[in-house]
């Protein structure tokens, strides 16, 4: 049976942190380390189960470059959840989270749920000197901003990738149950009437 609930999740963060590769891994398409810059916004979809109910998840992969931010901002209002991502081997990408948060506050819906992801943990598995952002720093950022979850992830190995999306979707699902969203509510839509003109996700970009 076609799932009746659609969650839209947007991936945001600096260029090169691995957003597109995380999406590719979540879609079970493996890992491709070839670097291709995302232009504008691309998306992929996947069905998951929450409380034995089938949910369709649409994930938007956004360009991280400054000159594409206006495009990214136009998608914030349609997102039910946001994954804010940085690279644990790049302190600048972590410091720039404040700028991304300002955009979220300005353009996303009030109370949107945000998950934090520190990507590329595979790079520090055997050479910790590559790490520029500690787990504690990420965890403190999560607590400071009341993010719904925090994971260190790896698109290459798949570490915590499913957990990242599953936990965010579980939070969205529980909120939907508590607030009693139904078929006539706009926050969660029937897939039979959902249309999106964007092209489907085709490539892996960091």
TrEMBL record:
Give the matching Pfam families.
Ras
Keywords, ordered alphabetically: GTP-binding, Lipoprotein, Nucleotide-binding
Q: Name one GO molecular function term.
A: GTP binding
Gene3D superfamilies attached here?
P-loop containing nucleotide triphosphate hydrolases
Q: Does the keyword Lipoprotein apply?
A: yes
Claim: Nucleotide-binding is one of the keywords in the record:
yes
Q: Which InterPro entries does the entry mention?
A: P-loop_NTPase, Rab_GTPases_membrane_traffic, Small_GTP-bd, Small_GTPase
Q: Which family does it belong to?
A: Belongs to the small GTPase superfamily. Rab family.
Q: What is this protein called?
A: Uncharacterized protein
Species in which this protein is naturally found: Stentor coeruleus
Recite the lineage of the species.
Eukaryota, Sar, Alveolata, Ciliophora, Postciliodesmatophora
């Amino acid at each position: 049976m076609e799932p009746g609930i659609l969650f839209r999740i947007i991936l945001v963060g600096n260029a090169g942190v691995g957003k597109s590769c995380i999406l590719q891994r979540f879609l079970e398409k493996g890992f491709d380390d070839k670097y291709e810059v995302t232009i504008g916004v691309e998306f992929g979809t996947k069905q998951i189960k929450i409380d034995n109910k089938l949910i369709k998840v649409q994930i938007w992969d956004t360009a991280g470059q400054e000159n594409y931010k206006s495009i990214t901002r136009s998608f914030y209002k349609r997102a039910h959840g946001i994954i804010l991502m940085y690279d644990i081997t790049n302190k600048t990408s972590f410091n720039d989270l404040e700028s991304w948060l300002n955009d979220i506050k300005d353009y996303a819906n009030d109370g949107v749920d945000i998950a934090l992801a520190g990507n590329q943990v595979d790079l520090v598995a055997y050479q910790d000197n590559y790490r520029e952002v500690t787990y504690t720093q990420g965890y403190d950022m999560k607590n400071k901003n009341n993010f719904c979850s925090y994971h260190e992830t790896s698109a290459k190995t798949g570490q915590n990738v499913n957990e990242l999306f599953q936990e965010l979707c579980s939070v969205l699902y529980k909120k939907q149950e508590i607030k009693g969203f139904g078929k006539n509510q706009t926050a969660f839509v029937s897939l039979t009437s959902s249309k999106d003109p964007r092209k489907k996700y085709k490539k892996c970009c960091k």
